[in-house]
Design goal:
Blueprint: H1 5-8, H2 12-36
Length: 74
């Protein structure tokens, strides 16, 4: 997440939209985590099942196979 929004935009409406979008992305990540630990979802939780992380919005530094792609080639 960008820490200094005043550097890339001085318009309050844009900054507010960015923070609203960021909050929605955090909610999406919480939902992904919740589903990963829901025992009723057998394809997401259980022995030998890796948690779904492909479109989780945030990750640690480095290659993690997580995140939303900036573009997609077809």
């Amino acid at each position: 997440e960008r820490q200094q929004s005043s550097i890339w935009s001085g318009e309050a409406e844009i900054i507010e939209a960015f923070y609203n979008f960021s909050a929605e992305m955090r909610e999406i990540e919480k939902e992904i985590e919740r589903r990963n630990y829901d025992p009723t979802l057998r394809n997401r939780c259980g022995p030998g099942v890796l948690p779904y992380e492909l479109l989780a919005p945030t990750s640690q530094p480095g290659v993690t196979c997580r995140g939303i792609p900036n573009s997609v080639s077809t």
